[in-house]
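Structure, all four chains, one model.
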Amino acid sequence: MPNTSAADVLRVARMLFAIDGYAATSIGHIAEAAGLSKSAVLYHYSSKEALLEAIITPAVDGLEGVVASFARSADADPRHEFVEPFVDYLLANRLEMSIFVNQGQSLRGLPVIDRANGLVQRLGDAVSLGVVRIDDRIRFGMALGGAAYTVVAAINWTDNALPSAELEDADEVRAALVEIVTGLLVASRTSVAAH
Amino acid sequence: MPNTSAADVLRVARMLFAIDGYAATSIGHIAEAAGLSKSAVLYHYSSKEALLEAIITPAVDGLEGVVASFARSADADPRHEFVEPFVDYLLANRLEMSIFVNQGQSLRGLPVIDRANGLVQRLGDAVSLGVVRIDDRIRFGMALGGAAYTVVAAINWTDNALPSAELEDADEVRAALVEIVTGLLVASRTSVAAH
DNA sequence: CAGAAACCTGACCGATCGGACAGTACGCTG
DNA sequence: CAGCGTACTGTCCGATCGGTCAGGTTTCTG
């Protein structure tokens, strides 16, 4: 994690985009918070959109891996194949998740966001394959969406403004998420098998 | 549901605020979509903020009832006392929920939004009372947040643009949500009792 | 029919936005 | 020392924003 100005801009912008929203965050705000001029921000990132792209592209790349790991877990025990990578991904990309979970729809049209939305849809489609019962679909949606939203909400509802959350009991949180998500997914699987 | 211009403005604005976001929706956009001039919109609602207030105040009032119904269900079977009203509330206020679930943090500072956020916090606090284990807290968060987010996401991921979603199997959805949320809450309760 | 109230428009305002651009200070290399 | 790339700054621009205002039309009421 280098300490260059460009990296500072990235960190500040990620924070502001996640908490205040992309539309409500001006380049001037980012510049001020980073201790630079607006022009300096635009020197490092040629546009506001390019800045957003630089922020969430790595996270979207990681999401690609998560989707792949789900496809791989099609018939195995989903816990190790899919759930743990999924939960780890959520916890490691909280701010980026917050951006495209909460603003994914309003920002559609931007290429990076569309790519992220497409991946989410692919994940949803992959899971709907062979799942007919509505309550199973909803259970699955709650497992994925609920976990994502819970992790994101933890940013907002705990006293934030601190650079990274005070997750000292991160291991416990992780274990709990893995257990609950697995529970919801397994319930879905078994009811599929029984059907 | 009257067909006056003021009501049209309200409907259009609710849609745009929920889908495109409050910050990204200009009064001019609302006016255009409603077939009026910008001035006409500002004639019916004195400011953009007043328009948002008119949209979500009824939903926030309803949320007050939901919070009260949770307090009432403290030791009873939570299904009828709390879960059903909660799920019904979510389904009946999908667009408004979408606004202050997804944008509640970025819009903090606006009185109506702060009131809504305070209610959500009150609900969270009420539930944390006596719940120590982290996995129980997360399970509860996933029950409430996940249900809310699932209902909201259904707006965004299904082909929208249709005025109200094509929820013909609404009864099945409702039943499934009630069952799943109840399951998560009951698991939490029993583990509290066992502890 | 007179007048008031309700409804709506177009013109205009200051502020802020994303972004372009010309210029400057600094360090490295030949 | 000359020259060049990097890292910035302040200035300016057109567009768009939320909001005001003066006036026009329609509708209701006495």
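The CA atoms of residues 45 and 51 of chain B lie 6 Å apart.
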